[in-house]
């Protein structure tokens, strides 16, 4: 056991929380996949369990490998990765995949391995790292809004504009996280107000253009608006079928739940193993299980605050906030959707829901956080002499 702890470094509490969430995920994923097994295969649920295990195994390999990298290197890597992400988003958007006439181009197929990958998830991690890098560069400097437009806001809005047509919820969450990060990073509030206004104007123009010329480019504006209308409309409609089934599942769970694998609503609830897995968890493990799960995410948030406090690097602090806060935010949104406190968004429950991209990108972000907590940084002199990626970062 001591040899094992020798190889894994960083905040041990974060390692424990991640391990507990991953181990627990097998129960609801295996249970919720039963209806998928009978609908789309021969009823064999083992294959879904093995697939989830493979996703987690690769995720932990990413987590372990990334946490071994000195976090200083993520500065330069974000500059290299940003244009790659833009290209990947363009390729994803250009596929023109539609569902009922709406843009559904969110995934690209990785050649030879037959795996699909959601590019917006990787884009979120890269963009937040890039923003953290820039904010650390202008720390204690007097900058004008004009000086920050090209190096900071143009990349942000390009990435967001490429995600928006197919995934409004991810765009909104990512923009919110960027705003929070730049606020924490000390960006002038008067400039931030300009950015918020520009973002609102851009979104308004996009919605008006999409409604006026729907044949020009497929989009999901009608889907977004219907979800908001269904959320605000208290009358039962056919469109809020998912929420109704989720509420039934939660109500059936009671205090202690029906027991592992005994969920009934998983057979009727769409996306029961991903977007609405929290409803299945509450039905099977009750209020007790839901509270324990929520406390684990809140404990993870607490440990992120500890890592931020202990970090001696301003970039390290911003990096932890930038890639760590979205994990907690996404988890809370997923839970809020299931209990009808938030409109349906399609956001998964980190480390619990099935789906390779979500698990891998969460592990990537956690690996970066653990790198900061392990103080995997090179000395200032070595940083200037031996880190070409950071030299590139400073040049740009």
One letter per element, helices H and strands E, the order comes to HHHHHEEEEHHHHHHHHHHH
Show unreliable segments.
Answer: 98-103, 378-388
Q: Provide the spatial order of strands within the biggest beta sheet.
A: 1-2
Largest sheet: 2 strands, antiparallel
Strand fraction: under 5%
Specify the overall morphology. globular
Structural class: mainly alpha
Question: How much helix is in the residues?
Answer: 55-70%
- Domain module count: 1
Mean pLDDT value: 83
Oligomer: single chain
Number of strands: 4
Structure characterization notes:
This protein is mainly alpha-helical. It has one domain (about 20-395). It has 16 helices and four strands. The protein has a two-stranded antiparallel ribbon. Helix 6 packs antiparallel against helix 13 and helix 12 runs antiparallel to helix 13.
How would you summarize this macromolecular structure in one to three sentences?
By secondary structure, the chain is mainly alpha-helical.
Features:
3% strand; 396 residues; globular; two-stranded antiparallel ribbon; mainly alpha
SSE map:
Blueprint: H1 2-7, H2 12-32, H3 34-40, H4 46-67, H5 73-94, E1 98-99, E2 102-103, E3 107-110, E4 115-118, H6 119-137, H7 145-163, H8 168-184, H9 189-212, H10 221-232, H11 241-253, H12 277-310, H13 314-338, H14 356-373, H15 380-386, H16 388-395
Antiparallel strand pairs: 1-2, 3-4
């Amino acid at each position: 056991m001591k040899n094992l702890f020798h190889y894994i470094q960083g905040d041990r509490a974060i390692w424990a929380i991640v391990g507990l969430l991953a181990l627990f995920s097998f129960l609801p994923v295996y249970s919720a996949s039963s209806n998928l097994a009978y609908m789309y295969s021969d009823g064999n649920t083992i294959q879904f369990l093995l697939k989830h295990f493979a996703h987690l195994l690769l995720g932990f390999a990413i987590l372990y490998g990334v946490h071994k990298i000195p976090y200083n290197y993520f500065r330069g890597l974000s500059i290299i990765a940003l244009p790659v992400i833009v290209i990947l988003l363009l390729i994803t958007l250009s596929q023109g995949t539609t569902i009922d006439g709406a843009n559904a181009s969110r995934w690209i197929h990785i050649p030879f391995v037959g795996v699909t990958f959601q590019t917006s998830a990787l884009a979120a991690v890269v963009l937040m790292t890039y923003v953290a890098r820039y904010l650390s560069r202008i720390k204690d400097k007097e900058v004008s809004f004009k000086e920050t437009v090209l190096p900071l806001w143009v990349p942000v809005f390009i990435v967001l504009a490429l995600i928006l047509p197919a995934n409004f919820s991810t765009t909104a969450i990512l923009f919110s996280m960027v705003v929070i990060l730049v606020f924490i990073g000390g960006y002038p509030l008067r400039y931030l107000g300009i950015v918020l206004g520009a973002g609102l104007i851009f979104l308004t123009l996009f919605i008006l253009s999409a409604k006026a010329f729907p044949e020009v480019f497929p989009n999901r504006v009608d889907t977004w608006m219907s979800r908001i209308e269904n959320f605000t409309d208290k009358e039962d409609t056919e469109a809020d079928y998912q929420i109704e089934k989720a509420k039934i599942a939660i109500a059936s769970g009671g205090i202690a739940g029906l027991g592992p694998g005994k969920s009934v609503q998983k057979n009727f609830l769409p996306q029961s193993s991903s977007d609405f897995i929290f409803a299945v968890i509450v039905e099977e493990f009750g209020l007790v299980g839901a509270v324990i799960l929520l406390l684990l995410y809140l404990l993870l948030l607490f440990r992120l605050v500890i890592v931020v406090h202990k970090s001696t690097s301003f970039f390290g602090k911003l990096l932890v906030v930038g890639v760590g806060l979205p994990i907690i935010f996404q988890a809370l949104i997923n839970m809020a959707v299931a209990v009808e406190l938030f409109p349906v968004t399609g956001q998964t429950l980190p480390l619990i829901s099935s789906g390779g991209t979500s698990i891998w990108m969460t592990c990537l972000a956690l690996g970066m956080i653990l790198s900061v907590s392990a103080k995997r940084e090179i000395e200032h002199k070595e940083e200037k002499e031996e880190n070409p990626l950071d030299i590139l970062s400073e040049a740009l």
